[in-house]
Design brief:
By secondary structure, the protein is mostly helical. It has 39 helices and 2 strands. α20 packs parallel to α22, α33 packs parallel to α36 and α35 runs parallel beside α37. Pfam families: Neurochondrin.
Length: about 725
């Protein structure tokens, strides 16, 4: 006790030798004075805390077994004023005794609307101070979550008790730290709380309105999306927030009001989608267009003529504007929004100005010699700029080409680093769920897969000669192939292996449903693989010489041979099935010289590809038994599949010329005969010209490559088929002139 002053040592002695609660309580008045003195360092506070003993303080707090005439509130007040001083020390605020008594503090603040507290609001205030100090530290946050502090704080705010903003601040700290997991699986407390805050936000006309905007942002950002979104349309908070933000953003406001409003708008659009902005029945586009303009202007103001460091100082606000821009661009790309020409021009001008500013800052960073030594938070901000830029490139295929080409190598470096960090994180999480320890330091960069977000833009870029040369010179296709493998591991999800002890047992329970997050990841990875197939298709068609001699493209072909037959035959996989099948055909055509007839994997691949092409059309599902229709399973996705089917038919025809023995599969599977039987049933003059030429061209190539197709086609009704649909070229091959 060498570092403890004499008066404090004396006080500790008195506390330890006190023979009754009354003596100890008297000594506490000395403590309240000493604990605020200059001499009372962390060591002294700890010694005092242990000399008093939490057991005694708890007795005072709960008013149990105190033999005296004083009202319980006096004991509470003394105990809390001492605890408030102790709580400032991290070691004491996370002391196991302190954490074990969080429920006592919560009880005090929860009873703050009782009459007996009206005269002693200081007690509640000090209980909040203790809770706030505890919530500053990880151990304290964990303890608060475990005792259900989030639900309790939500109730306090919903009932509008005394000092409710303190409850709100503690709540925000907890949900910001623990994210969606903090809310649990029941969305009711979240909705009740946010309904109340949103109503206050809409009706409050003081500066507190903007504090509430910041709090709402934090709550929406941290909510459990899977439980909150489904019932959100039944709640009042989306409409309350809309009304308040509309009022704010259509008024004359300064930076302090605009910034929190834009951040909140970004969070709610990220949660509920762009459709949330169409809340005004009379003029649904008005608020959407206003918000888009404001965010585009804000981006220009924050980035134009600024250094990267200056821009980074406002990273949170700029990123919020990027969210609005990205989601708006993606939404406009779906053609669901009917804009007049004047509105389109105005939006385009605003966006072009914003993206000029983004490209300008990215160019400065890419030319900086220290660009590889940036700290992670700065890298994440640069990734946010690249992310919003590639959303724009995916839709706007002509603007700022030269600057974008110059940026591509830098963007790929960032995207590849981000992909590798993200993949490492996902693998670490998988190992953890399999019971292995997580022994990897997850970087900030691993929170997002920037390469995945670049894929739609890359589909367009590789069509342009200059961009394609950059992609191939950088060997970017190698990383794209890694991405293909990674996303396949998610799409082709395998259930955990059943332990040996459980095998062979009769299963009484139904198969557990897949976690919604796993399903969401599978859906996203399917879309990623479709984009990767489109990129590889464009490279295969536009850089045939590179593909012909490339080991990587040969490996990609083997990947398709091995994996396409394994793809589950479910409706969700149909579009991906088609893309992998047709990419395989394009590669097969280029790499024909490397294909061996005795390779079993090619047999299974061709069978899977024939199945995709065969199942697209039929007459059985038509209302008219003489009409050819797209099959029901394909109909829903025909927009995405139609061009693919025609390309597949055309490419297979070309493959038959270079690898004639593939014709055996078309004949032995019954497909060739099936085409003849199907088309023979179709009424004269009703076969669409493009469908007619796709089938005729394929059957002509089939006959050229394998004469044994002739009797098979004749048996299927080829004569009637050729006559009905005037298939002149095929008729000549089958029946002569």
């Amino acid at each position: 006790m060498g570092d403890i002053s004499e008066p404090i040592k004396k006080c500790i002695l008195i506390l330890k030798s006190a023979k009754s609660d009354t003596e100890k309580f008297a000594a506490l008045f000395m403590v309240t004075k000493l604990v605020k003195s200059k001499d009372c360092n962390a060591l002294a506070k700890k010694a005092l805390f242990e000399a008093i003993g939490f057991k005694f303080l708890k007795k005072l707090l709960t008013g149990n077994n105190i033999q005296d005439d004083c009202p319980p509130s006096v004991y509470k007040s003394v105990a809390l004023s001492i605890l408030t001083c102790f709580c400032n020390e991290p070691e004491l605020s996370t002391h196991p005794e302190m954490l074990a008594n969080i429920p006592v503090f919560l009880d005090i603040v929860q009873t703050s609307d009782n009459d007996d507290y009206d005269d002693n609001l200081i007690i509640i205030s000090e209980a909040y101070t203790c809770l706030q100090c505890i919530a500053e530290h990880e151990a304290g946050q964990k303890a608060l979550i475990e005792v259900g502090a989030i639900t309790k704080m939500s109730e306090i705010y919903s009932h509008q008790s005394f000092q409710t903003d303190e409850a709100l601040n503690i709540l925000v700290k907890l949900v910001s730290r623990y994210g969606p997991a903090a809310w649990g699986s029941d969305p009711k407390p979240f909705h009740a709380l946010v309904n109340k805050i949103a109503l206050d936000f809409a009706t409050d006309q003081s500066e507190r309105k903007f504090e509430l905007a910041t709090i709402l942002s934090a709550l929406l950002y941290s909510c459990n999306k899977t439980t909150v979104i489904p019932g959100s349309s039944e709640e009042t908070w989306p409409q309350s927030i809309y009304k308040a933000l509309y009022d704010i953003l259509t008024s004359k406001i300064g930076k302090n009001q605009r910034d929190p409003a834009l951040k909140l708008a970004a969070n709610i659009i990220d949660l509920l989608g762009v459709e949330w902005t169409f809340n005004d029945e009379d003029n649904p586009k008005k608020f959407f267009l206003l918000l888009l303009q404001l965010c585009a202007i804000e981006v220009r103001m924050q980035l134009e003529d600024r250094s990267f460091k200056q821009a980074f100082a406002n990273a949170e606000l700029i990123t919020a504007c990027f969210i609005v821009l990205e989601l708006s661009i993606n939404y406009m790309g779906t053609d669901q929004l009917d804009l007049e020409q004047k509105e389109k021009q105005s939006v385009y001008t605003s966006l072009k100005g914003a993206f000029n500013a983004v490209v300008s800052i990215l160019t400065k960073v890419s030319n900086d010699k220290n660009r590889d030594k940036l700290p992670d938070p700065e890298k994440v901000f640069i990734c946010a700029m690249v992310r919003v830029l590639v959303a724009w490139i995916a839709q706007e295929t002509t603007a700022m080409r030269e600057q974008i080409y110059a940026l591509l190598p830098f963007m790929f470096t960032l995207a590849n680093d981000s992909f590798h960090a993200y993949r490492a994180r996902k693998l670490a999480e998988k190992n953890k769920s399999d019971g292995e320890p997580m022994n990897i330091e997850i970087s900030l960069l691993g929170q997002i897969d920037l390469l995945r977000l670049m894929l739609p833009a890359l589909c367009h870029l590789v069509v342009e000669d200059k961009a394609r040369d950059i992609v191939l010179n950088l060997k970017q296709e190698d990383i794209l192939y890694e991405a293909m493998n990674f996303h396949w591991s998610i799409v082709h999800y395998k259930k955990p292996i059943v332990p040996k002890s459980e095998r062979g047992k009769v299963r009484t329970q139904p198969e557990p449903e897949l976690d919604p997050q796993v399903l969401e990841d599978m859906k996203d990875s399917r879309a990623a693989m479709v984009s990767l197939c489109n990129i590889f298709m464009n490279l295969t068609v536009l850089a045939p010489k590179v593909v012909e001699n490339s080991m990587l493209f040969n490996t990609l072909l083997k990947f398709i041979f091995n994996n396409l037959p394994e793809l589950k035959n479910i409706p969700e996989n149909l579009v991906l099935h088609g893309h992998l099948a047709v990419l395989g055909l394009l590669l097969l055509k280029q790499q024909a010289s490397k294909v061996k007839k005795n390779d079993f994997s090619i047999c299974r691949y061709i069978q899977s590809t024939i199945r995709f092409l065969w199942d697209a059309y039929n007459v059985d599902e038509s209302n008219d038994p003489n009409a050819l229709v797209v099959s029901m399973t394909y109909k829903e996705n025909w927009n995405e599949i139609a061009d693919l089917w025609f390309l597949g038919m055309q490419t297979l025809s070309g493959v038959l010329t270079t690898i004639p023995w593939i014709s055996e599969f078309a004949i032995e599977s019954g497909w060739a005969e099936g085409i003849a039987q199907m088309l023979a049933k179709v009424k004269v003059g009703t076969l669409a010209p493009n469908v007619k030429s796709a089938f005729e061209d394929f059957l002509c190539r089939l006959v050229d490559s394998n004469e044994s197709a002739i009797p098979v086609l004749k048996k299927g009704g080829a004569l009637k088929m050729c006559r009905n649909h005037r298939l002149m070229d095929l008729g000549k091959k089958l029946f002569g002139d």
